[in-house]
Amino acid sequence: MATSIAERLAELGIELPTPPAAAANYVPVRRSENLLVVSGQLPMEGGQVRYKGKLGGGVSLEEGQAAARLCAINILAQVKAHCGGDLDRIVSCVRLGGFVACTPDFTDHPKVVNGASDLMVEVLGEAGRHARAAVGVPSLPFDASVEVEAMFELR
């Protein structure tokens, strides 16, 4: 396995984008002591929401997982920007919170949010294992299918 987080991302073929700006009256990240809280990230790509709609209502499980993975990539982009490009300041991913826009009968929220959880473990190894919530909601900003927030411990 690679020795740095940047090397692991390269091995996985992931290039972190410029992090999306906040869409309302909040900050993308907030640090308190050694904890870095990352505001909810949408599956944005090239300035647009890539995955729209509801799980159970036209959006497949696989698309939901891809959306959650893209949210996690955007989370890491926010962390990288906050840390001046040094992702190796991450000690661990403490928690992820996943929100899944879905129909009332959809119940596979955990499987959807695994898209983000799996990426954190792929990139951070054991340090990527985290506590988590996966919640179904009736809608998300900009008709996004998924939103994921995170908390990290930093050096």
TrEMBL record:
Official protein name in the record: RidA family protein
Residues covered by the Endoribonuclease L-PSP/chorismate mutase-like domain: 8-148
Native organism: Benzoatithermus flavus
Gene3D superfamilies cross-referenced by the UniProt entry: RutC-like (3.30.1330.40)
